[in-house]
Amino acid sequence: MALLKQLTPVIVAEAVEPGIAFWVDRLGFKLTNQVPGPEGKLIFASAERDGIEVMYQTRASVVEEQPGMARELDGHSVALFITVEDLDEVERAVAGAPVVKARHKTFYGSTEIYVREPAGNTVGFAQF
């Protein structure tokens, strides 16, 4: 079995730009890749910071490449869990994003906050 090295989520969304902006503008990620579609809007983009990478791809482009995926994408979602050094700083950065679960302490020793990113997925940030 090969050693696993990294997990990079590909978030399928109606539009790429709002999701990428969440990571770049609020959390200081760097835009590392972008693919415009025929109308000039992005159909794919990725952003990275400190070894964490997120990718966004439009639902339409996924279905265009793989028509059989249309039904698979209905109602899908992902929840991301990210360990951070300074939850106060992250909480300031995501201020205004819809809160899924307010800042709280857990039984396993972390303090966490969960917000919704623009594609509707939950992003949890935890400080241990």
Structural features, described:
With 128 residues, this protein is an alpha/beta fold. It has one domain: 2,3-Dihydroxybiphenyl 1,2-Dioxygenase, domain 1. The chain has four helices and eight strands; from the N terminus they run E-H-E-E-E-H-H-E-H-E-E-E. It has helices at residues 17-27, 59-65, 70-73, 87-93, and strands spanning 10-13, 30-36, 42-49, 52-58, 79-83, 99-105, 111-116, 122-127. Strand 2 and strand 3 (42-49) form a beta hairpin.
* Radius of gyration, in angstroms, nearest whole number: 16 Å
Fraction of helical residues: 10-25%
User: What oligomeric state do the depicted chains represent?
Assistant: single chain
Which shape, going by the Cα principal axes?
Answer: globular
User: What structural class results from the helix and strand content?
Assistant: alpha/beta
Write down how many β-strands occur, each being a DSSP E stretch of 2 or more residues: 8
CATH C-level category: Alpha Beta
The sequence of SSEs as H and E is EHEEEHHEHEEE
Question: What is the structure about, briefly put?
Answer:
The protein has helices at about 15-25, 60-65, 70-75, 85-95; strands at about 10-15, 30-35, 40-50, 50-60, 80-85, 100-105, 110-115, 120-125. It is an alpha/beta fold and about 130 residues long.
What's the helix and strand layout?
Elements: E1 10-13, H1 17-27, E2 30-36, E3 42-49, E4 52-58, H2 59-65, H3 70-73, E5 79-83, H4 87-93, E6 99-105, E7 111-116, E8 122-127
Parallel strand pairs: 1-4, 5-8
Antiparallel strand pairs: 2-3, 3-4, 6-7, 7-8
